[in-house]
Amino acid sequence: MVTSGVKLLSGTSSRYLAESIAANYGMALGDVTINRFSDGEIQPVINESVRGEYVFIIQSTFQPHDNWMELLMLIDAAKRASAQYITVVMPYFGYARQDRKDRPRVSIAAKLVANLLVASGADRIMTMDLHADQIQGFFDIPLDNLFGSAIFAPYIKSLGLEDIIVAASDVGSTKRARFYAQNLNCDMVICDKYRKRHNEVSEMQVIGNVEGKNVIMVDDIIDTGNTLCKASNLMMEKGAKSVRAFCTHPVLSGKAYDTVLNSSLTELVVTDTIPLTSKNEKIKVLTVAKLFATAIRNTHENKSINSLFIKNN
Ligand code: R5P
Known about the structure:
Blueprint: E1 6-10, H1 15-25, E2 32-36, E3 42-46, E4 54-58, H2 66-80, E5 85-90, H3 109-120, E6 124-128, E7 143-146, H4 149-158, E8 164-168, H5 174-184, E9 188-194, E10 203-207, E11 214-222, H6 226-237, E12 242-250, H7 256-261, E13 267-271, E14 283-286, H8 289-300
Parallel strand pairs: 1-4, 4-5, 5-6, 6-7, 8-9, 8-11, 11-12, 12-13, 13-14
Antiparallel strand pairs: 2-3, 9-10
Helix pairs in contact: 1-8
This protein binds ribose-5-phosphate (R5P).
């Protein structure tokens, strides 16, 4: 195992995951302090030399915005401290939902933060289940997009369920759902949703037959939970035996925990790219730490990371 020349760093809110990734990698996290001015302004300090090192900065960019600012300033600090190569390990890529100009006078925030990452000094990005694959093209540096399916598919198989069918929770998840359906060797259906405004689902219909099926619903993000819970209720009304949701990034804002608890979902399975803020008997967390540790190791040793993606049958 190569650890020489590697430094693993993290800001505040992703430390729980960064420590676990570092433990799987076989080394301790680098020493970082986040100072604060009395008005709340932050000042990240790297307390050890990174001169000539391969620095991996592990930070998911969920809310609050301090996570973004910490990340950008840590990259800048590492660059100015003469790090040789800086890889940003961002298990959850915040602002990825704003990836196009779909109405007048709005920002393409995903492109804006891509520019900020590169301007700060990032040489490579490693992330997971990007909201839209095209975001890779917002960068002119290498970007590795790991798949949550590498974590979820073995768990789904371990449940030993019969009569399974995969559901895309919206049209945007169709490609992801097809990948699961091929891997699990089953059919798929699509939930078609219409939103009038953010986080509110106005209309939904299921395209396909779920009667008598144990549904495996997949999505990249669960935010308010409205999409997944509405889809689950609809599929149960259409005769599904059960509905389980597999969702990589548990944003879970507002009343999401209650929405999930009171829904017809049997289980919501998420990863730890974002920490849960409350316990919930319906939510199970699977860790991505080992997968990211292996991806970091392979990257540092210039080995392919292709083996980390599950293959279709
Ligand atoms: C949307 O395109 C995403 O894939 C998710 O379906 C969405 O972000 C979920 O949001 P919410 O949980 O608020 O319905």
